[in-house]
Amino acid sequence: MGKKSKRNKKSINQAERKGVIKLKIHPLFFALGFYYALTGKLFLFFTVTVCALMHELGHSFVAEAHGYSLNKITLMPFGAIVSGEVDGLKSKDQILIALAGPMVNLSVSLFFIALWWIYPDCYPYTETAVYASLSLALVNIIPAYPLDGGRVVYAVFSTYMGKKRAGIICKILGVTLGLALIVAFFLIKDKNFSLLLFGVFVLVGACGIEKGGSYLRAYPVLSTQCLLRGAPVKKQAIDGSVTVKKLLSVLERGCVNEVVVYKNGKPLGLLTWEKLQVILTTADLYQPIERFVHL
């Protein structure tokens, strides 16, 4: 089996698990939870965890809108990391998806702050959520991989100097910041173990930057169970200028999708379910679908 066939098979296997997000917990997450429990701040730790999951929902929502899906969420001491892999993701999409998480946290903070003006009595119950969300937003925009700010820097640098050089620069930034935080922990008299864990987190994340992207293609597939129940046929009409990436976001799950492609208001051809599977697993994400009608 050739390299391309193996990649296609891998993509199909990943797609069959689409919609099932695996939750993994990093050992440092338990370490931080233990530290907060010892210091009597377990409620704060729980609040931060909820805010971190909301952070990932922000990534998930924007990723789905761009035709991608989360594969796995790993809870980390200061947030979470999404994992998976996709080829050909443009820098603009990488940046939008990366910034979605911090924007959700910032929106949550602003919502509760605005609520204080309307219902001041809710302040004692929402103060922790505000500061936890705001902290996650600010921490994640730090330009150090694997934080969201580091992903933005990596995406921008990749555009102008290639992935290899961008990876080296981001790794240097991450390692430098991680080591600086660890050294600061030992130099400061009042020890803050959160600082130490954050430094280790950034250091480990920076060393793993070469592992690849964070999202996988989210094209629909039909399982045997779905076919046994009877899957409906969904037929849509789409202009030929629509990209493969856009097509990924409009197809419906659990259906036999068929697409009638139009050009200048006239039908150009039909993309059957079988042809769609080939296009969605192998084609360049940013190519117009009209190029594949007569293949």
Short description:
With 295 residues, the protein is of the alpha/beta class. The chain is 59% helix and 13% strand.
Description of the structure:
The protein is an alpha/beta fold and 295 residues long. It has two domains: 19-217, no CATH class; 224-292, CBS-domain (Roll). 59% of the residues lie in helices and 13% in strands. It contains ten helices and eight strands. The protein has a three-stranded mixed β-sheet with strand order 1-3-4. The protein has a three-stranded mixed β-sheet with strand order 6-7-8. It has a two-stranded antiparallel sheet with strand order 2-5. The longest helix has 40 residues, at 148-187. The protein is elongated and about 70 Å long. The two termini are 23 Å apart. Mean pLDDT is 75; it is low at 1-19 and 212-218.
List the helices and strands and how they pair.
Layout: H1 3-16, E1 22-25, H2 27-38, H3 42-65, E2 68-69, E3 72-76, E4 79-83, H4 91-118, H5 123-140, H6 148-187, H7 193-207, E5 216-217, H8 224-229, E6 233-239, H9 244-250, E7 256-263, E8 266-271, H10 273-282
Parallel strand pairs: 1-3, 6-7
Antiparallel strand pairs: 2-5, 3-4, 7-8
Key descriptive features of the protein:
disordered N terminus, elongated, 8 strands, 295 residues, alpha/beta, 3-stranded mixed beta sheet, single chain
The count of helical stretches stands at 10
Strand order of the largest sheet: 1-3-4
Largest sheet, if any?
3 strands, mixed
Radius of gyration: 22 Å
Assign a percent range to the helix content: 55-70%
Give the class from helix and strand content and strand pairing.
alpha/beta
SSE sequence, one letter per element: HEHHEEEHHHHEHEHEEH
**Subunit arrangement of the protein:** single chain
